Amino acid sequence: PPTATPPPTPTAPPTPAPLRLQVRPLLPTPTPAGSLFEVVVQVFYDANGNGRWDPGEGVADMTVWLVSLQDGRPIARGTTDADGRVRLQARAEGTVRVLIPYLGIVRRAESGGTMVVRLNPIPMPSRLP
Known about the structure:
It is built from no helices and 7 strands. The chain is mainly beta. Strands 3-2-5-6 form a 4-stranded antiparallel β-sheet, with no helix packed on it. It has a 3-stranded mixed β-sheet with strand order 4-1-7, with no helix packed on it.
């Protein structure tokens, strides 16, 4: 006759190993190389042709970039306010250029300076065909 097999004996679940946390000190955040570079860009449309900015002549929402020529990457970006001004700051080494893509303008920038971009009014012919 067949022999009866005893039912399996339940085993206790394994006890999990205790968690051990290892605390490591935070590494200091590296300071970006280079010195602080700051430039103000003013873009205006000289509607009255007097050669200088007057209230109401600022070009708003113009995108302006600072580009490092050392590695060719953008280091700062901003848009002009209602007066046509934007202040850009970044850390940079070497030469930096201001780029205004919409106008196709690329100029060397000097830290601490103001770059003025004057858009000249274009006279229209008295008669259009």
